[in-house]
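Bumping with the actual sequence this time:
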Amino acid sequence: MNFLSMLIAVSESAAWESLTLAEKIAKVNDAIGTFVWTNMGLILLIGAGIILTCVTKFFQVSHLKTWWTNTIGGLFSKKSKARKNKESGSVSQFQALCTALAATIGTGNIAGVASAICIGGPGAVFWMWIAAFFGMMTNFSENILGIYYRRKNSEGEWSGGAMYYLQDGLGGYKHCKVLGRVLAGAFSVFAVLASFGIGNMGQINKIVINLDNVLPASVDLGYIGNIKLTHLIMGVVLMILGGLIILGGLKRIASFAEKVVPFMACAYILGCLIIFFANITNLGAIFGSIFKFAFGIKAVAGGVAGVTIKTIITQGCKRGVFSNEAGLGSSVMVHSASNVREPVKQGMWGIFEVFADTIVVCTMTAVVVLSSGKIDLNTGAVAEGTNDATLVAESFGGVFGSFGSIFVSVALLLFAFTTVVGWSHYGAKSFEYLFGTKAAKGYKVFFVLMMVSGAIMTSSLAWEISDTFNALMMVPNLIGVLAMLPIVIKITKNYVDRRIKHKKIEPMLSFDPAIQAEHAKDVELEEKEEQEALQQVNS
């Protein structure tokens, strides 16, 4: 069924006239979201990832040592510049990574993984890995283009993202100027709208409901009209905390992310590892079930009875993309603010971002869920009465007792709150592209105020609509990335030839001749230092 026929079927259904306006909007939104994700989005995402992996000659594997030592592997080296930043209007490479991870490591890494397993069975985890493997090169390519096509705004800050490489990259092709600008505008509109839902109200709502569930009954303060007072108070507190960080600009956001993200990720992984080793005798069965059910072996009973290969692949890939956002073009906006000169260097941080988010954090969650006893590893069936929203908390509770549920609640709070902080930058940069730098300041104020709305909302419609806009972001973004494959290939080859094969060629650093000339001096100095260090080692 094509998209148009889906909408016609929805609007002509017998019950359509009896629905309220909100219910009609929900139906239409569901039809659009289902089409974008199931019929087009996943094929476009995975297809783009495969193409980008092939044209870069499996860079994430063939140059594993290079990207590892240039990112987390070399972070604590005395010579590493990844954490250093003296340039105004930019953040360090590590701060850019942490801010991107702040936005991507969220509820999708906990509740999203549990939901994928409950709906698609253990095999969904395998397809989550596949989406991440190819997504590494999608994120790599996005960040290369983001750095290459960025520019300084009126306040001296770097501005980059899909809207700029659509406008100047795709728009630079013959007869594509209007197309580039239209797609850039569409991406920015979708990003702004998505930022209020998936990046704000939806996350705040998850925090508030989660905290309300763990608070003692004595804390219940009753209602003001239809608004629960405890939710309102928590919303105001979160708004004040969010405002102190978000209104301080990218520097403050990055500073916050740099401190909180490594702590929260390491603490969560440590908790998962304790459960991992507590169930070490079951690891063979856990990973066996992931591979066994990845290719459509159907369960004979329970919640995943009759699950098809399409459902398994869709759930795994969809949750993988929700988690790491590779292909959506969102994290490019903060990676483009890095003080890095080489596009490929920031591209490598994009590879690590997807690796850390999905291969590490989501896999840890999957092991916790599959070791809980709530999923039958032989049949893939889900135990009766199992709720995917509370499954991870129950799994932690099975090992840590009551502390386990509290730990997961705190983890969800931090994960969701940092997502809000990270997405505030994405929305602001998209708003800046549409309306200018001064208007973006007004957006930030409105974004902070809307956090209270997220705390008191009872309908999930806002979340579901923004989820659709989130999916729609990837369409113009991936059109741009695929159209600019030649640029990605040239920049990657240029870097490999210069920095790995040590050929004497001109670097490709920016589409802007002025920025290219300025950065070429810094890169020349870096290459000279590397050559001297290499000579010392050889001698």
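The tokens above came from a reply further down the thread. The first strand starts at residue 151 and ends at 152.
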